[in-house]
Amino acid sequence: KSFEADLKQALRKGELEIFYQPQVNTITREICGYEALLRWFHPIRGQVPPSEFIPVAENIGLIHELGDWVLRTACTEAARWPRSLKVAVNLSPVQFRSRNLIQSVVTIVTQSGLDPDRLELEITESVLLDKNEQTLETLTQLKAVGIQIAMDDFGTGYSSLGSLRSFPFDKIKIDRSFIRDVTTRADAFAIVELVTGVGRSLGMTTIAEGIETEEQFACVKQVGCEQVQGFLIGRPVPATQLDHLRQASN
Ligand code: G
Ligand code: G
Ligand code: MN
Ligand code: NA
């Protein structure tokens, strides 16, 4: 069977699962929340990475159904966590541009019982590229119901620092390509320091992605980055393993 045909059945066959990766405060090391990361386990293909199946889901129009499922599952799960913990969900640009995005997001969040301010939607710079007025309108509506907005993979796309002025982000996720080099290259360090400073000045939370070593952790903490996420803190794990993870950090 084709990749597309298998993907279309994945949800119904129970092959999809959400893994959660912790985000911690750099000063207290307390967990602030988790990013929801979709996983596909196919009996023959094995584990298919989202970088391979998300683009296909976008092309065949399946992303709306998948995206709604991820959002519903993550919000329902998070509604049972301690109230101090947020959940971050990735939104595909295709989902973001859909006409009924606001209505479906609001319906799903309401039905889940999760406080909207505990939901953070991650968008990438590519959504800022086109139709800026509509983008601003959508973000403003999401924020009006209390949902938080994070700019994912910041620094890798085409948007500039100006987008931080034009759009109401609550959080900036500094891309892991900068973190990888932050302890060894002055240019990467300068960019992390700059983005953290701009974020703080604009009242946005900054988080460093892809933290793998204590040296990287110390480095981003030193420049004032508020949160980190990465294999050093914790790998993405199934929801059933979260209790254990939380206790281990306390
Ligand atoms: O999970 P992993 O580290 O392999 O993530 C690879 C990419 O897939 C990342 O860019 C991540 O944002 C994206 N991704 C993971 N889960 C989802 C999801 O539920 N929806 C969308 N649109 N992208 C996701
Ligand atoms: O684009 P986005 O930030 O949503 O993607 C998250 C991706 O980054 C996931 O695929 C996740 O597995 C991966 N990831 C998370 N932490 C680390 C890390 O410390 N190192 C590396 N190499 N990848 C990471
Ligand atoms: Mn993300
Ligand atoms: Na990212």
The CATH topology corresponds to TIM Barrel
The SSE string, one letter per element, is HEEEHHEHHEHEHEHHEHEEH
Cα distance spanning the termini: 47 Å
Corresponding CATH architecture: Alpha-Beta Barrel
CATH class: Alpha Beta
What is the topology, as strand order, of the major beta sheet? 1-2-4-5-6-7-8-9
Q: What low-confidence regions span 5 or more consecutive residues with pLDDT below 50?
A: none
Name the structural class: alpha/beta
CATH superfamily membership = EAL domain
Radius of gyration: 18 Å
> Percent of residues in helical segments?
40-55%
Organism: Phyllobacterium pellucidum
Domain EAL: 1-250
Protein name: EAL domain-containing protein
Chain-wise SSE layout:
Elements: H1 3-10, E1 16-25, E2 31-42, E3 46-48, H2 50-59, H3 63-78, E4 86-90, H4 93-96, H5 101-112, E5 119-123, H6 132-144, E6 148-154, H7 162-166, E7 171-174, H8 176-180, H9 186-201, E8 205-208, H10 214-222, E9 227-229, E10 237-238, H11 242-249
Parallel strand pairs: 2-4, 4-5, 5-6, 6-7, 7-8, 8-9
Antiparallel strand pairs: 1-2, 1-9, 1-10, 2-3
Helix pairs in contact: 3-5
This protein binds guanosine-5'-monophosphate (G) (2 copies), manganese (II) ion and sodium ion (NA).
